[in-house]
Design brief:
single chain; about 300 residues; alpha/beta; 13 helices
Length: about 300
């Protein structure tokens, strides 16, 4: 028998950034779950995009600390919500850093910057495995672009685990999956928000949609080639999420593709949370220790 996930009314997708001025490139997509007519319910109810904004605008400040505080407060203030954050939630079992709670403590207690923490993990990887990097099982299964402490992702991992997951993990109103699955089944806890790891690239691969050549670099306007790939992706998403013409224009004009990634984060985690066997995930030998991509 499949475990029952709390009823979800809204799904939030966060294209997370670990940059110092993360508010400039991090985006939030807010979607609503369409309620179909009784007797006509599809396996995966369609989402409707309500809001799509840069997080710096929402937080009133582009500074990373301000943006992350805004995100934590927003998750805590929601009800019947599912949040998908695009950063690794845990570290490989092979590193020997203990269970997830101990991993969070390891990150929180580290004195230094994100790149310093990444170098520490590389040294540890060499010692325990003879390699520079180790991919989690979920990274291999979901075909994520990088391992969770690659130099191109370590800022997201470090600040996401330290500034987002550490405070949320201590809040009984929030359930971070798959680590805190017991909060769903416990009679003493009634979480109002579920928080899971997203990966837009993995979602595109699962949907057999283009996962390259839609991002522009350096803050430059996207070329017609970038926009054409985005149009193809939007066409593929049409059956899963309703997007207004205004939001389509935002997605097509956004330089880095971050607005589209926020929408993909919401779509990916919604599909996964509806269709996954959550009790099997909770019993898995690795997922509750190192995390799982919901894409």
């Amino acid at each position: 028998m499949r475990a029952r996930i709390p009823e979800i009314h809204q799904v939030y997708g966060v294209d997370f950034s670990g940059a110092r001025l993360s508010g400039l490139t991090a985006w939030l997509a807010v979607t609503q779950v369409d309620q179909p007519a009784e007797g006509d319910a599809p396996i995966l109810p369609r989402l409707r995009l309500l809001e799509l904004d840069p997080l710096g605008t929402l937080a009133g400040n582009d500074d990373r600390d301000a943006v992350n505080r805004y995100l934590v407060a927003s998750v805590r203030g929601c009800e019947r919500a599912l949040w998908g954050f695009d950063f690794p939630f845990g570290l490989p079992v092979e590193l020997g850093l203990g269970r997830w709670k101990e991993q969070l403590a390891h990150v929180a207690e580290f004195v230094g910057q994100a790149q310093d923490y990444g170098r520490l993990l590389v040294r540890r990887s060499r010692e325990v495995n003879g390699s520079l990097h180790i991919r989690r099982l979920t990274d291999r299964e979901a075909k994520t672009p990088f391992d969770c402490y690659h130099y191109r992702i370590i800022h997201q991992t470090f600040y996401g685990m330290r500034d987002i997951l550490c405070p949320l993990s201590r809040d009984v109103r929030v359930c971070v999956l798959p680590f805190q699955f017991a909060r769903i089944t416990s009679s003493k806890a009634s979480p109002r928000s579920l928080v899971v790891e997203a990966c837009p690239s993995s979602t595109l691969k699962r949907l057999s949609l283009p996962h390259r050549l839609y991002k522009q670099s350096g803050g430059k306007p996207p070329t017609e080639s970038h926009r054409e790939v985005r149009r193809e992706i939007l066409a593929g998403l049409n059956r899963l999420v309703e997007i207004s013409p205004r939001h389509r224009r935002t997605i097509l004009a956004n330089p880095g593709g971050d607005a589209l990634d926020a929408v993909l984060a919401a779509v990916g985690v919604w599909n996964s949370i509806v269709t996954d066997e959550h009790d099997a995930i909770a019993r898995h030998g690795r997922y509750p220790l190192e995390g799982r991509v919901y894409a």
